[in-house]
Amino acid sequence: MNVFQFKHFNILQNHSAQKVGTDSMLLGALANWKTPKNLLDIGTGTGVLALMCAQRFPFELVVGVELSEQAYIDAEENFINAPFSSTFQLVNQSILDFQYPSKFDAIISNPPYFDNSLQTGETYHFDVVSVNQKGEPVPAKKLQVKIYKVQWRWWYEKDIENLAQYISRSG
After folding, report:
1. In Å, what is the CA distance from 101 to each residue of 2, 85, 94, 95, 104?
2. What share of the chain is helix, strand, coil (3-state, %, to 5)?
3. What is the pLDDT of residue 155?
4. How far apart are CA 43 and CA 59, in angstroms?
5. Most Cβ neighbours (<10 Å): which of 31, 40, 85, 131?
């Protein structure tokens, strides 16, 4: 059994291709809303982000949408075993087909990343939607989007002086 243990809950990840990683733990820890009531987790995977957020915020409803049947199996078990008071719902379908009768005031997603998925010299097309604070589509005038491929480096430094030394060494 493949289990990732948090302080107050466990994530079973026996079926999902995407296992709990540093990126999801950071995203879940950094998520911040003022008074959220309903959370939508797009591509919930094992449900780790939904559960991390439910631990920190008093959501009335947490909805996870997951396309992969294998990941859905893990998320379903993780939601059932959740020790939080939130009501969890899980939907096994594409987010493109997902419709819900009410709006969400908190949305989170951590899509999978694939090395070499944006090759230089290739043309890619993206659909971009601009929304207002209520999440309603608004016309976009003079919208400019740039896509960057980023190489990540992690480090631990005690103070800003050490950070400056790190930058000068690694530049």
Report:
1. 35, 22, 17, 14, 10
2. 25, 15, 60
3. 44
4. 18
5. 40
Which amino acid makes up residue 138?
V
In this structure, how many other beta carbons lie within 10 angstroms of the beta carbon of residue 33?
15
Residue 3: phi and psi, rounded to 5, are -125, 135
Residue 120: the pLDDT is 54
43-80 pLDDT, tens per residue? 999 999 999 999 999 999 999 999 999 999 999 999 99
- Whether 90 and 64 have beta carbons less than 8 Å apart is answered as yes
What confidence score (pLDDT) does residue 160 get? 46
Give which of 161, 158, 103, 108 is closest to 132, Cα–Cα. Answer: 103
Q: What is residue 137's DSSP assignment? A: B
CA distances to 61, 110, 112, 114, 121 from 118, rounded to whole Å, are: 36, 17, 13, 9, 9
Separation between Cα atoms, residue 41 and residue 39, nearest integer Å: 6
User: And the tokens for 135?
Assistant: 């999440």
Task: Kindly state the greatest CA–CA separation across the chain.
Answer: 54
Q: pTM for the complete prediction?
A: 0.66
Joined together, the tokens standing for residue 79 give 């939601």
